[in-house]
Amino acid sequence: MEEADIADLMRLTFMVILKLSGPLLGVALVVGLVVAMLQAVTQINEATLVFIPKVLGIGTTLLFLGVSMYGTLADFTRYLIDRMVATGGS
To answer: How many domains does the chain have?
Structure first.
């Protein structure tokens, strides 16, 4: 395997990581900011208050985007296996 092939695989791997984690991290960030703003306005300083809305937000995101995320991961896995078979496993 050449350096260019490894660089291409690394780039593709990081793109898959961003596609899979981006929506979940974005939802967690937005929910955390909204709850933090509500806590600042109401002066309720409870550290565990943000946990349930984040879990619900991430769960909802997984409910809507889970099939797409699975498809992305399955395609990437098939691509890696095809590459291993094409190079003879080395």
So the answer is: 1
Handedness of CA 64, 67, 68, 69 (dihedral sign): positive
The candidate with the shortest Cα–Cα distance to 20, out of 70, 81, 88, is 70
Angstrom distance (rounded) from CA 60 to CA 23: 11
pLDDT tens, position by position, 9-43? 999 999 999 999 999 999 999 999 999 999 999 98
Predicted TM-score (pTM) of the model is: 0.80
What tens digit of pLDDT does each residue of 55-79 get? 999 999 999 999 999 999 999 999 9
Which range marks the domain in which residue 68 is found? 3-86
